[in-house]
Amino acid sequence: MTNQVFTVTLSELSPLTITVNYSTVDGTATAGSDYVATSGVLTFGPLQTRQSIVVSVQGDVVVESDEHFTIDASSSQATGATATGTIIDDDATRLSISDASANEGNSGVSNVSFTVVLSKPSLLPVTVNYQSSDGTATSADADYAATSGILTFAPLQTNQTINVPVFGDLAFEADEDFTLLLSNAEGAVLARDRGVATLLNDDTPLTLVLSKTVGIQNISPVCTNVTRIKVPIGTTVVYCFTLRNQSAYTPNRHTLVDDHLGRLLDDVAFDLVPNASFTVSQTATLTVSVTNIATWTATIMPVGEPITGLAAASLDSIARGLTSTQAVVTMSAAADDQDGDTIPDNVEAAADVDHDNVPNFLDLDSDDDGLSDINEAGPDPYHPLDSNNDGVPDFLSRNPPTGLDETSEPVTTRLYLPLVER
After folding, report:
1. Which of 20-24, 30-34, 192-196, 203-207 is predicted least confidently?
2. Can you give the pTM of this predicted structure?
């Protein structure tokens, strides 16, 4: 509580004693809550010209306009007077905004909520402008909706909420953030003018595992567990691409690109359920060594929303899994002999004459005739023996020891003896 002092002055000296009645009168200030009602009689002795009236002012913490009351003075011995007392509001409220966080969700729209508070109540309205500002979360990528407006506090209201829409997605990503800025406060002082919203990633990763293996055409199994092979020049190999889904999601659009074989799947639609796998195979006849890398991109597209025509940068609302791997095929050199039978790989080639699922260049008895290739090839393995000149080397034909191949007619050997007359 403080005092407000009014000075009462007579306009001229008087040899008489003069009495003056006074009392306070409410204006915008109210007796009892803003000040103490005061009344009484002032006495001026002879030749006295100055007296004081003291009115007690009651303090508060409410933000309000300056207020006033009046004090009336009257006397039968002098002309009356009125004075105004002004109570100046010295309470300032401070305006602050909180930080906020929210799970982004898997779909639809939810809100992240900022709380804006006044440090003390105000009898006057308080307004403040607000505006969102991108951080790692952006409105352009549909992480949240850009938001702006004017927030108004009614008299005596101290808490308000600003809701900003957040869009859910299935993309596994880092937590993202944006800022809500306050400006142009009216009726309050800005104490904290920005709040940071953190959008918490609540998605598990779309975990995909791609294996790429390579085998030889017509050799079982076609899809092996081998990623590196050496084969004779001109071999037709089979690449097998197997994608396994190790996540809880079901990707439904697939693209497979191999940097040597090209685009094998182009936005193909099929559901790959959790823990399932899918295999794509492709043949290639090779004359040179090749190391090629394949990349399989699987996406979860919202039902009814095609991927066609959408740029990759705009797919933040779509879960994507990407995995790549490589396979290596090396051509055998002229002298390479992987089965050690002295016959070069490129001479034996990758066919499987005896259908035992072992290619000739790895088979020590390619024609399964009981005779080893090394014995049937003869002294020059680069030009193996072809006993019956049918164009098929002996080691690739089921020849009897005579050297005749399996397709030849049996040969009857006759022994002619001279006749002797007795």
Report:
1. 203-207
2. 0.51
- What residues contact residue 308 under an 8 Å CB cut-off, 6+ apart? 267
pLDDT, mean over the chain: 84
Q: Which residue has tokens 């919203």?
A: 197
Cis upstream peptide for 344 (omega within 30°): no
- State the Cα–Cα distance between residues 296 and 324, nearest whole angstrom: 6
Q: What share of the chain is helix, strand, coil (3-state, %, to 5)?
A: 5, 45, 50
Fold of 2-87: Immunoglobulin-like (2.60.40)
Is 208 exposed, middle or buried, given 0-12, 13-18 or 19+ CB atoms closer than 10 A? Answer: buried
Between CA 36 and CA 3 the distance in angstroms is 10
Report the distance separating Cα 65 and Cα 67, nearest Å: 6
Position 315: which residue type? Answer: L
290-339 residue pLDDT tens:
998 888 888 877 644 433 332 222 223 334 456 678 888 888 888 899 99
- Helix or strand run (H / E) with residue 224: none
What separation, in Å, do the N-terminal and C-terminal C-alpha atoms of the chain show?
169
Summary count for the chain: helices (H), strands (E): 2, 23
Specify the DSSP element, H or E, that contains 348.
helix 345-348
Copy the structure tokens of residue 227: 């990623």
- Residue 414: the pLDDT is 39
Average pLDDT over residues 180-204: 89
109 SS3 class: strand
Q: How far apart (Å, rounded) are the C-alpha atoms in residues 246 and 209?
A: 7
Please, are residues 153 and 162 in contact by the beta-carbon 8 Å criterion? no
Tell me the pLDDT band of 210, cut-offs 50, 70 and 90. confident
- Where along the chain do the CATH 2.60.40.2030 domains lie? 2-87, 94-200
- What CATH number was assigned to the domain covering residues 208-307+314-331? 2.60.40.10
> Partners of 20 in the beta sheet?
42
Residues 77 and 21 sit within 8 Å (Cβ to Cβ):
no
Cα 221 to the center of its chain, rounded Å: 40
Contacts of residues 387-390 at CB distance under 8 Å and 24 or more positions apart, as own/partner, are: none
Report the C-alpha gap between 286 and 360 in whole angstroms.
17
Tell me 375's DSSP state: H
The CATH superfamily label for domain 94-200 reads CalX-beta domain (2.60.40.2030)
